[in-house]
Write a structure and sequence with these properties.
single chain, 11% strand, 56% helix, alpha+beta, Endonuclease, Chain A, four-stranded mixed sheet
Length: 150
């Protein structure tokens, strides 16, 4: 199966895929800002450069796109098997998933809380995503309060 786009069209298409300030990141950031949370964007002092970091609470938030981070990987993988350039895409997405796991482990080992949201979850239920973060902040505050009392 050949590509339906010309090389020029494919190039333009791929150039428009952003790695920073994606629509899903901006939606979540605006919701957090509105709730009064202050954060860092693409914090380069942490492995994986999390999309949003609440340094005060040591929370690293990643906003993952479904395709490039392999949501429902077994279903996506079977679809990719029949697609154009399947070996490239399967190895790329597999490596992305492995890297995500490695980064999660590094951050957790360093004492950070890691939260990952899928793009469609952010778009469809932003308030639920914010609630997950608020619950984690509350839990962290509660743990800190307990440690002071001991």
């Amino acid at each position: 199966m050949s590509d339906v786009l010309t090389p020029y069209q494919r190039r333009k298409n791929m150039q428009n895929i952003r790695s920073k300030d994606t629509k899903i990141e901006v939606i979540l950031r605006k919701a957090l800002w509105k709730k009064g949370y202050r954060y860092r964007k693409h914090y380069d002092k942490l492995p994986g450069h999390p999309d949003i970091v609440l340094t005060k609470y040591r929370i690293a938030i990643f906003c993952d796109g479904e395709f490039f981070h392999g949501r429902d990987w077994q279903v996506l993988k079977s679809k990719l098997m029949n697609s154009n350039n399947s070996d490239f895409w399967i190895s790329k997405i597999s490596r992305n998933r492995e890297r995500d796991d490695e980064i999660n482990k590094q951050l957790i080992y360093a004492g950070w809380n890691v939260v990952r949201f899928w793009g469609n979850d952010i778009k469809k239920s932003t308030e639920e995503c914010v609630k997950v973060i608020e619950d984690l902040v509350f839990e962290i505050k509660f743990e800190d309060k307990d440690s002071y009392e001991e």
